[in-house]
Amino acid sequence: MSDDWYLEDDFWRNFGSLMFNAQTFAEGADQIDALLELLETPPRAVLDLGCGPGRHSLPLAEAGYPVTAVDTSRSLLDQLDQRKGELPIETVEADMRVFERADAFDLVLVMWTSFGYFENEADHGRVLDRIHASLSAGGRLVLDLVGVEYLARNLQPVHLTEYEDGRILIERPALIDHMTRLDNDWYLIDGDRVHRTHISHRVWSAGEIRRLLSDHGLTVESLLGGYDGEDYDLDAERMIVIARKLEGDPR
């Protein structure tokens, strides 16, 4: 599989049902409920980058917020189109490195570690520049990440998950490149078949993500360890970043 594993149809075909199921959709709805409380100010227009089949787009639209849902996977967008019915969701097949609508959104979401896919470090900056351009004045960005602080202390070399339908997923994760990337080999045992894939994410510490966002015209307002609103610390399994587009920024 290529470095652009997230563009491979085989990846989503073989592993998508493990990632997108009734439980993860329910978790997505709970996350949106909690996030809207954290944000306090209701958004007028939302951009969901790396939306997948709509774990977060659907509950946002059900709450009455117009959503533009962007993903590179046509098959995942087709699933969202089938689910959305008459909900106010526009689906767009596009790469987050190039998608831009000037000043069109007051909230941009990049959820479930969808920020960090790229091998080329400069591509993450390109994404942030597109986000900055797409946010209205004072608009906010939410990133849902996993922090290096937690991974460095808790990462297990092998993780096994058994599913009710009999499938078994074996994961072999490792922090590489001076703890800047999380590489993971997945082996899905499905009867007499074994599906293999290799995925890789860029990961950041709290300080690194603050600096990166600042370099691209976004200032961090909150750095949380989850959707319960607790501050981010060494024990936090997630790093939820809420940042705002700087007023009057020259970008």
TrEMBL record:
Residues 46-139 form the Methyltransferase domain. It comes from the Bacteria. InterPro entries: Methyltransf_25, SAM-dependent_MTases_sf. It comes from Wenzhouxiangella marina. One of its GO terms (molecular function) is methyltransferase activity. This is Methyltransferase type 11. The keyword Iron-sulfur does not apply. One of its GO terms (biological process) is methylation. PANTHER family: METHYLTRANSFERASE, UBIQUINONE BIOSYNTHESIS O-METHYLTRANSFERASE, MITOCHONDRIAL. Keywords: Methyltransferase, S-adenosyl-L-methionine, Transferase.
